[in-house]
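User: Hi! I'm working on a homework problem where we have to compare a predicted structure to a textbook description. Could you give me the structure for the chain below?
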Amino acid sequence: MTAHPETSRNRDLAFDPIHEARSNWVRQGWEDVADSMAAVTSVVRVQQILINQANETLKPFALTFARFELLALLSFSHEQRMLMSKASARLQVHPTSVTHTADRLEKDGLVERRPVEADRRAVLLVLTDQGHRLAREAAEALNRDYFSGFGLSAEEARELFQILRKLRIGAGDFADTAPA
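Assistant: Happy to help. Predicted structure tokens:
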């Protein structure tokens, strides 16, 4: 995995800022929540690192991770098409975000928008052949250069997924009806 400039520039720090923040929490008398604060802050920081590194891997494809996610979602759908509203729900992002992402993908010839005759307000996103090829190539690059070596063993990644899934369920992110 290649380091992104924003994530590698802090290697000169002689301390962990989040560990220091945890120590400050303890000194303020908030020891009972210091570990939770450090965990939440760490997840937010790791999210920044992971997105930056994914975007770096996708740069040769002129994609961001958000654009890749929409392409991948369409490529995995039964007919490589999906209502824009359904894509928004599946990606768990605001419809405006999907609209903006679809604008860029459409401009690049990777998706097409089609009206839905039964509902004039609905819009169908359709993956083009070029979009399908790019989604496949980008997924292969992510698998090879990023997902396969992001710093955790397969067992650690599975454990982390289960922990984060538990947090997501607790937050009401989705209904827990099926095993992970």
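For your comparison, note the following. Confidence is low (pLDDT under 50) at residues 1-8. The first strand starts at residue 81 and ends at 83. Good luck with the assignment!
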